[in-house]
Amino acid sequence: MGKRIKLYFNPRSRAVTARWMLEEVGAEYELETIDFEKGDQRSEAFLKLNPMGKIPTLVLGDGTVLAETPAIVMHLADLYLEAELAAPLGTPERASTYRWLFFGAGCFEPALTIELIAKLKEPLPSSSVGWGDWQSVLKTLESTLAESNYLTGEKPTAADIYIGAQLIWARMFGAPGIADNPVLSRFADRMAARPAHHRAFATD
Ligand SMILES: N[C@@H](CCC(=O)N[C@@H](CS)C(=O)NCC(=O)O)C(=O)O
Taking CA 165 as the corner, what is the angle to CA 159 and CA 170, rounded to the nearest 5 degrees? Predict the structure, then answer.
């Protein structure tokens, strides 16, 4: 067993959800406080771990860095199977688990954020919205894709299909910061060139 899991944490943040999951699975972990007022989340060292500058950010005993609350929650469920919070791979229950995790991040959270902005009648700062801002999103993708051809290394995974599709669409719609970004553009080209991508547009 390597070092203990470290969770970058602040009690007034979404990192509480990651800590809740650590408690659910019975993991041994340590907390590293991120003091928002001091700007710890913008330090060079922290941005190296998570260029979004956000918590929760988790570092596993083997050095693996994981961000995004639903990914952290799911991976911990996989690592601690004895807690029985992960349905087996390929089962309908597992499929449903993915559905609700992504629904949480992709539907519930943005819908809630927009609702709160309407209620407060003022925009929320990028520090409070889950997606931060466009520049940070692009920087996060760029910093990973500058190191490897695909998001998780030198072999494509499902993540490359999904993010690839988003980048291809965003570039097509003229979203700023993609066509003129060599790293992101090369990745979009690489993904667009896949035969299965061409077959996805078949009309017969
Ligand atoms: N998409 C991220 C959102 C995380 C997030 O927005 N965290 C906030 C605290 S709740 C944060 O770290 N804000 C600091 C900042 O952006 O400066 C997730 O679901 O984990």
Answer: 125
Pocket of ligand 1 (CB under 6 A): 13-14, 36, 41, 53-56, 68-69, 105, 127, 130, 132
Predicted confidence (pLDDT) per residue in 156-190, tens digit: 999 999 999 999 999 999 999 999 999 999 999 99
* Count of positions (residues) in the chain: 204
Tell me the per-residue pLDDT of 24-53, one tens digit each, with 9 for 90 and over: 999 999 999 999 999 999 999 999 999 999
Please indicate, yes or no, whether residues 118 and 137 belong to a single structural domain of this protein.
no
Distance 132 CA to ligand 1 centre (A): 7
Residue of the nearest CA to atom 1 in ligand 1? 130
What range defines the domain where residue 115 resides? 88-131
Distance 1 CA to ligand 1 centre (A): 29
Domain boundary, last residue among 116, 131, 146: 131
158 lies in the same domain as 190? yes
Report the chain's C-alpha Rg in angstroms: 18
Considering only CA atoms, which of 112, 119, 163, 110 is closest in space to residue 140?
A: 163
- Looking up residue 191, the CATH number of its domain turns out to be 1.20.1050.10
Atom of ligand 1 minimally distant from the CA of 10: 9
Q: E strand or H helix at 29, and its extent?
A: strand 29-33
pLDDT at residue 67 is higher than 60 = yes
**Distance from the alpha carbon of residue 130 to the mean position of ligand 1, in angstroms:** 5
Q: Among 47, 49, 55, which residue has the most ligand 1 atoms within 8 Å of its CB, making it the best to mutate? A: 55
